[in-house]
Amino acid sequence: MTRKHLIAGNWKMNETIPEAVVLAQEISNLMERDWLEMVDVAVCPPFVDLKPVKTVFEFDRVDIALGAQNVYWEPAGAFTGEISIPMIKEIGCAYCIVGHSERRNLFGETNEDVNRKARALIEAGVTPIICVGESLAVRDEGAYLDFVCAQVRAAYAGIDGDDALATVVAYEPVWAIGTGRTATPEQAEEVCAAIRATLAELFGAEAADRVRVLYGGSMNEGNAALLLAEADIDGGLIGGAALKAGSFTEIVKAAL
Ligand code: PEP
User: Which atom of ligand 1 is found nearest the CA of 12?
Assistant: First the structure.
């Protein structure tokens, strides 16, 4: 089946509100409206930027979705510093990144946390973008497929086939994130195909065929076309290049 590509920009902890408004405006200006009929596009700014970015896109009537970069699974309560799913949903987020390697490695997020977040997001009707990926040490040892597929199994524990359809997976090798060292199309395809095979084991081939698997890790306007041409790569999760409107929109163009 043909899966519609998804290009999602992860702005990480960048852009104050005025800067975010400028970046959103530049993206809107450069984005050809008919591309958005062929490719799904989302940006995931910091929480405080979500509303101002949404206002820009609404004013411009540009169909770019919003995503959050993280969330907590409880709906409300005494969880100082956390943001709930009802909060990001109300503000207009269609997506939420979960299990980004920076959250796993810098903030101690576990596979169990990722699973709880994914399940709570699905229940609320927000699409989790579930990030998985191996470190350089794991890749060098050679067991990276087992490692990544175990992360996938853990993330989907207790999720059924229908709900799995409402998810996106992002394969992001840690050694390629923010390093300028991109996985080759063959390396990325090998793991994305293994992720899809794991989804097929869990939910059946038909469901697995409908779940989008993205690649992330130093994707830019120069390498996007070759990566996106691979059979099991259905889009990109973009970090650094998402902060440059020209680069981000060129990646969207490469995904057409
Ligand atoms: C990311 O952090 O999700 C990412 C892919 O970053 P970069 O594109 O900068 O490697």
Answer: 2
Decide if 1 is inside a domain: no
Q: pLDDT by residue (tens digit) across 198-214?
A: 999 999 999 999 999 99
Query: Residues in the chain, how many?
Result: 256
Average pLDDT score, the chain: 97
| Reported confidence tier of residue 180, pLDDT bands at 50, 70, 90 | confident
**Residue 132: CATH number of its domain:** 3.20.20.70
Total of domains in the chain: 1
Question: How much is the average pLDDT of 177-200?
Answer: 95
Ligand 1 neighbour 178 (Cβ under 6 A)? yes
Q: Is the pLDDT of residue 217 over 90?
A: yes
Phi-psi region of 86 (alpha: psi -120 to 50; beta: other; left: phi over 0): alpha
Active-site option among 15, 100, 109, 189: 100
Task: Report ipTM for this prediction.
Answer: 0.97
213 three-state secondary structure: strand
Is 247 annotated to bind a ligand? Reply is: no
Q: Residue 40: give the domain boundaries.
A: 6-254
Ligand 1 pocket residue status of 67, Cβ below 6 Å:
no
Q: From the CA of 241, give the closest atom in ligand 1.
A: 8
Torsion sign (Cα): 80, 109, 194, 41: positive
Best of 98, 238, 244 to mutate for ligand 1, by most ligand atoms within 8 A of CB?
Answer: 238
Let me know if 172 is a catalytic residue.
yes
Position 165 in a domain: yes
Q: What are phi and psi of 172, to 5 degrees?
A: -130, 95
